[in-house]
Design goal:
The chain contains 2 helices and 5 strands.
């Protein structure tokens, strides 16, 4: 059962700025995320304080990740941002 997914302006803006190769990889990862966020390949993990309300999944081996919020009761994912480790500083 697919999860409901929303994205933010920040996610859309950052996605457009990614190099084409990384954007293609992210496009390949997103359907798996929407279907099963807990798939082992995504390495879904909760972030630590002060970002404990956020989760992250890996997009590729170079450190690109998607930051998201997860509401398991509503089966909803909110895509907050995408980029390298530096995106943590945006929150």
């Amino acid at each position: 059962m697919r999860w409901n997914v929303r994205d933010t302006d920040s996610f859309r803006r950052s996605f457009k700025e990614l190099p084409e190769k990384v954007r293609k990889r992210a496009k390949a990862v997103l359907p798996l995320l929407f279907e099963d966020p807990h798939a082992p390949a995504l390495r879904l993990h909760r972030l630590r304080k002060p970002l404990a309300n956020y989760w992250a999944v890996d997009v590729d081996e170079s450190g690109t990740r998607i930051i998201l919020r997860v509401d398991a009761r509503k089966r909803e994912l909110v895509l907050m941002d995408i980029g390298d480790h530096g995106i943590y500083g945006r929150f």
